[in-house]
Amino acid sequence: MTAFLLAAAGFVLAMVAAGLVRVLRGPGDADRLMAAQLLGSGGIAALLLGGAAIGDGSVVDVSLTLALLAAFASVAFVKFAPSGDSP
Amino acid sequence: MTALLDVFTYVAVGTGAFFFLAGTVGLLRFPDALTRLHALTKADNLGLGLVVFGLLPQVDGFANGLKLVVIWLLVMLSSADAGQLIARAERRARRRDD
Amino acid sequence: MIELFYAAPALLILALGVYATFARDAFAACAGYLAYGLLLTVAWVQLGGVDVALTEAAIGGGLTGVLLVRACAKLPAKDSGLRADGAGAPIRWLAALAAIGVSTALAYAVLALPVPAATLAPEALANLAATGVGNPITAVLLAYRAMDTMLEAIVLLLALIGIWSLAPDRAWGGRPGPGYEADPHGILAFIARVLPPIGLVVGIYIFWVGADQPGGKFQGATIVAAMWLLTMMAGLTDAPPVSRRLLRLLLVSGPLVFVAIGAYGAFAAGAFLGYPEGLAKPLIIVIEIALMPSLALTLALMLAGAPQRSAAT
Question: How many domains, in total, are found in chain A?
């Protein structure tokens, strides 16, 4: 079980990392922001899986904080993107 | 009973990981920003949701399980919201370019 | 696949660092920095530093990324003639060499440490019972090295004063930031109504749980600050004018309480910030309860920026 959860965590991380290519290529600001958001969700999933594998319950708090701050950062990025105005 | 729960975890987490794969493939291969956004939100909702459900049998204590579900609901809420905001900004940017 | 879990963040952090440094577009660099912060959080968890991971998620992922993107939004557009060309090539090379030199020296210093590294961690853990808290990080921050935490809080206040001093004359003492407006029935207003109550509860929870588990006032205060900023960005609330007395009182109350408890310690326990026998946990709780609102206010106001509107509006 531990090995499976850690492997799943590694897989999810690798997946969202591949999505980071979008940050590189763009072509728009929205694409870059979406790649960062995918990384956020994937990071949360990977942390939850890793925490469950190690058996450390406090990692869930890190995921909780990440979820809130990623929401805040996404909203702020859309608002302050050079092409966007306040919706 | 534990064996059944373990199988549930394997299946749920595996499917969740698959949806992350689908989300990434969509983000990389779909033709424009709005379709990529659609793929992204699938990874957020389904991928994370299935991972959370798969982990629920493995946590000890009701509070930890509740935290997991709250995380999933929060991510769904914020990704839906951010998705709308991104889509509107994208549409405005397109209207400006035309 | 398991090795991927450990190797992927390390490689990605390097790649993102390179990208964020060399990216042509400032916004792309900010997005890269946001991703970098998220990956650093994962790396910290892998290293076992869950407290640091919490702080990285809160500050590195959220607040600093938003700070950078706001600064990026204030830069003049690329194709306008207003952008200076920046530092010339020799200065950039000098800067790069200096950075590489410092990093190499640091790497060498870390690698040259004796293998069972000299550390005070066993003594810190052994004396944990005297401090009354269960989390060794909290014990270090608020008992063994409380002086550092107090000075940090004061430094944050000084930084805030520095930011306020950037206000133009007509806006002196006024409200930070432009007044944001958003459709009150729109999506932004929706999430600014739904998320902050949840965030407030989570922030206070993380603050409270820091006594015995990873957490603490700094991470909790950051979450609360982010939630307040969210309501500001949606136009649901407005930043208060910085000349308001109550605001300034709240800002200094935290560090003042800290200093006062330190002075009391000089009286009762013979050393500034010493805790008398048995009073350690209550005093720590008082300090934390006083510091958290001040910290949240300070961080939020730092991100709200310099005053741009006069106080009369």
Answer: 1
